[in-house]
Design goal:
The protein has two domains: 173 residues, TPP-binding domain (Rossmann fold), CATH 3.40.50.1220; 83 residues, SIR2/SIRT2 'Small Domain' (2-Layer Sandwich), CATH 3.30.1600. It has a six-stranded parallel sheet, with helices on both faces. The protein has a three-stranded antiparallel sheet with strand order 5-4-6. A two-stranded antiparallel ribbon has the order 10-11. It is α/β, with parallel strands linked by helices. Helices cover 28% and strands 20% of the residues. The chain binds zinc ion. Zinc ion binds next to loops.
């Protein structure tokens, strides 16, 4: 079991001197970091999930606002007010996000990307905010969409709108349809970036000693088993950073840091040793 102060670089050496199941020296050396981040990482930047009761969204029925079948139904019924409510709701969330600043956890991950290379530090998040990008992170996979783009439900075109508010009158630049929406994945909507997430986690894309962080995510959104199923112990080290207990989730984490994301990230020290990323938990 790992304790405070120990290195969590634990490559098992196989019987014939191979590391894990790989025998390509280069690949063995190039271990990588994969971060999965949920709402807990943004909480300390003042962003709550819409699942929380914090007053801001209480005038909206979230189950209707963020629901694709409902969105279709309102269109069929010609209910313009319902459409406008959806856009107003997401403009409020967007304003909230625009005023938020990245915290130490986002900044630390950005620093890792700069130190070890963006190809070795991959970020997957269920958050729709851009706090990773504001911190300087690149290639962030937003599995539930983001608030800086719109999507067309006729032709699936997505386009960047940056800081501009969502406009319910805006037509698709591809096909001209006015059946557009904020590019945030609704309940009942297909989430195409789950395919990207799946490929990042699939065993064929792993190297020995990869470090997987599961940060600030409740099991409700993306269950750890979804990411780590079929795992063999040799290929990875799992670190869970969470304010909540994930006991009984069916995945055994090698390191569990129970606390806020900023507290936990301030205790993690990663360095390069012979091209390998090694980690240490500071007291
Ligand atoms: Zn279109």
């Amino acid at each position: 079991m790992l304790t405070v102060g120990s290195f969590f670089w634990l490559t098992p050496i196989g019987p014939n001197g191979t590391i894990g199941t790989l025998n390509n020296t280069e690949r063995q050396r190039m271990n990588k970091i994969v971060i999965f981040a949920g709402a807990g990482i943004s909480e300390e930047s003042g962003l709550s999930t819409f699942r929380c009761q914090d007053g801001l969204w209480e005038n909206y029925d979230v189950s209707k606002i963020c629901d694709l079948p409902q969105f279709f139904e309102d269109r069929m019924a010609g209910n313009q007010q319902a459409r406008q409510d959806v856009f107003d709701f997401y403009n409020m969330r967007k304003l909230n996000i625009q005023n938020a600043k990245p915290n130490l956890a986002h900044l630390k991950i950005a620093e890792w990307q700069q130190t070890f290379g963006a190809d070795r530090v991959q970020i997957v998040t269920s958050n729709i905010d851009d706090l990773f990008e504001k911190a300087g992170c690149v290639n962030v996979v937003h599995v539930h969409g983001d608030t800086n783009s719109m999507k067309c439900l006729e032709c699936d075109e997505e386009w960047h709108i940056g800081d501009d508010p969502f406009d319910s009158q805006e037509s698709c630049p591809g096909c001209g349809s006015d059946f557009t929406k904020p590019n945030v994945v609704f309940f009942g909507e297909n989430a195409p970036e789950y395919v990207t997430m799946g490929s990042i986690y699939q065993s064929g894309n792993r190297n020995a000693g990869d470090l997987f962080f599961y940060v600030g995510s409740s099991m409700n959104v993306i269950h750890p088993l979804r990411l780590f199923r079929g795992e063999t112990k040799e290929t990875r080290i799992l670190v869970d950073i969470n304010a909540h207990q994930l006991a009984g989730c069916g995945v055994r984490f090698d390191v569990v840091l129970q606390g806020t994301a900023t507290e936990s990230f301030s205790r993690i020290n990663l360095t390069l040793k012979n091209d390998k990323i090694v980690g240490e938990i500071l007291k």
